[in-house]
Request: fold
Amino acid sequence: MFKFISHSEDETIDLACKMASKLNNGDLIVLSGNLGSGKTRFTQGILKNFGLENDISSPTFTIVNEHHSGNTNIYHFDVYRLQDVDEFYAIGGEEYLANGICIIEWGEIIEEILPADYIKVIFERDPECENNRILNFEVYGNRLLPIVKEVLGSENT
Reply:
């Protein structure tokens, strides 16, 4: 596990932007954490890398927001309202996973069908400082590990 302490919204956005510069179609990031813990700012940072930072909105009621930049599609899901994996399949979720960079909030709901390689970021409020956020990165599989090591530093475990 890798840990990053963000001291501001801008720092969270910058970290995600840096990470996004290393991502490719087919890469997946799962975001987990309470409301107001930084998931939207992290997504904004990913979109910023592609010049889409002003395009951010929560997909809570639409389930998925699609963003397009050049040859890259970014799909931002909020699966909180899904009852089960079958509902994800019903919206064509598998096709999204294969055809762009996917960001899935509350991805633990569909964890059983996620690909072998993905990054999970768990957001927590810092009990010591209300403006800080603790971002814990769990890397599943080996393909995305070099990205996390490069962005966060290999000594950050």
The domain at 2-141 is CATH 3.40.50.300 (Rossmann fold). The CA atoms of residues 74 and 101 lie 5 Å apart. The chain has a mean pLDDT of 89.
